[in-house]
Structure formats: structure tokens, C-alpha cells
């Protein structure tokens, strides 16, 4: 049984990793990291798998190209967390906490604990208990992007999903949120 398949165009050769499970459908996934997965049912034969991947080669190369473009996106111009001084950490916490307080006031929401972390993949998160986490790298981004992430997480205090109502809430306090989301994707956290 195949565990990987290679596909090639004029420029590069890509490896597609095969993940078999109890699922009923075939799924293709191209991660931001550039890893490519074919998620398939146990029962799918190798020839059918190869045929499916070949049929979707163009899509895979296109998606892979998009991840390369975001990878060449800017790394946040910030010192590694290990080299931050106590004063740096204090400034980061104060600035982010100040934006959270400001938006809590105008959005009329409350939060539990505010935590600033070195998160590998996220800019922020909000738990069902109302605790919010933020990536320390936000401190080093343009202010409108920090504000967008704060508004995004606080909007989860009203809607714990990404429904239409959630985005309407975000838009009330960050009318340019679409543009901010796009800009945020130009940076990566690692």
C-alpha cells in the first residue's frame, strides 16, 4: 500500500503523503508548511489513489505555490522570545492589555484572564470561559493589525464561532477588517 506519491512539473517534484483512515471520501490538503496530504479511506486501491492525485495535480501545484508565497511573506520583525528583557515583556503586556481594556469598554464585553504568549500558529484565541490569549509578536506589528486581532477575539465574547453575526460584530469596531485579515496573512509567526 502506498504511503506517498510523487508528482512533478517542469519546476519541481512534490511529495504527497498518504493518510488512510475510516473516512468515506478522499480529501487533499496542502498545509501552510508546504506539506501535502491525501486523506483516503482504507478501502481505496493504490491505482485509484494514483489516478485521483494525477487528476488533481494542477490544483496541488497551485495551492503549493500559494504556500510558498506566504512563506516568503514577512517574518515579524521581532526579537526571539528568549532574548526579551523584563522591560520588553512588561511593555508588550501593557500595550496589549491596554488595547484589550479599550475595546472591552467600547464593545461592552468582559474578559477573564489576558495572557500573552509565544504562540506558534495563532495570533490570538478566546476560551469559552472568556480568557483571551495573544501572541507577543502582535506588539511588533502595525497597530491596526493588533487592534484587529483584539477586536476579533473580543467579538468571540458574543459569538463563539465565525458566523455572519460574528463578522458583523467585528466590522462594527474594525470596518477595515477584511484588509487587516489579508495583511495579517502576509506575516508568519515562525
TrEMBL record:
Pfam families (UniProt xref): YgjP-like (PF01863)
Boundaries of every YgjP-like metallopeptidase domain copy: 86-186
Protein's organism: Blautia ammoniilytica
InterPro entries (alphabetical): UTP_pyrophosphatase-like (IPR053136), YgjP-like_metallopeptidase (IPR002725)
Protein name: M48 family metallopeptidase
Amino acid at each position: 500500500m502506498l504511503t506517498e506519491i510523487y508528482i512533478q512539473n517542469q519546476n519541481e517534484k512534490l511529495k504527497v503523503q498518504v493518510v488512510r483512515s475510516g473516512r468515506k471520501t478522499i480529501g487533499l490538503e496542502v498545509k501552510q508548511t508546504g506539506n501535502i496530504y491525501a486523506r483516503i479511506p482504507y478501502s481505496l486501491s493504490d491505482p485509484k489513489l494514483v489516478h485521483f492525485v494525477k487528476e488533481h495535480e494542477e490544483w496541488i501545484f497551485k495551492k503549493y505555490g500559494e504556500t510558498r508565497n506566504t512563506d516568503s511573506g514577512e517574518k515579524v520583525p521581532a526579537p526571539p522570545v528568549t532574548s526579551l528583557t523584563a522591560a520588553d515583556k512588561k511593555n508588550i503586556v501593557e500595550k496589549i492589555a491596554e488595547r484589550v481594556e479599550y475595546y472591552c469598554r467600547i464593545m461592552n464585553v468582559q474578559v477573564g484572564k489576558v495572557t500573552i504568549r509565544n504562540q506558534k500558529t495563532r495570533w490570538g484565541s478566546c476560551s469559552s470561559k472568556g480568557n483571551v490569549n495573544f501572541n507577543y509578536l502582535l506588539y511588533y506589528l502595525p497597530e491596526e493589525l493588533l487592534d484587529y486581532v483584539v477586536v476579533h477575539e473580543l467579538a468571540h465574547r458574543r459569538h463563539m464561532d465565525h458566523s455572519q453575526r460574528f463578522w458583523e460584530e467585528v466590522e462594527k469596531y474594525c470596518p477595515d477588517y477584511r484588509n487587516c485579515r489579508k495583511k495579517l496573512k502576509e506575516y508568519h509567526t515562525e
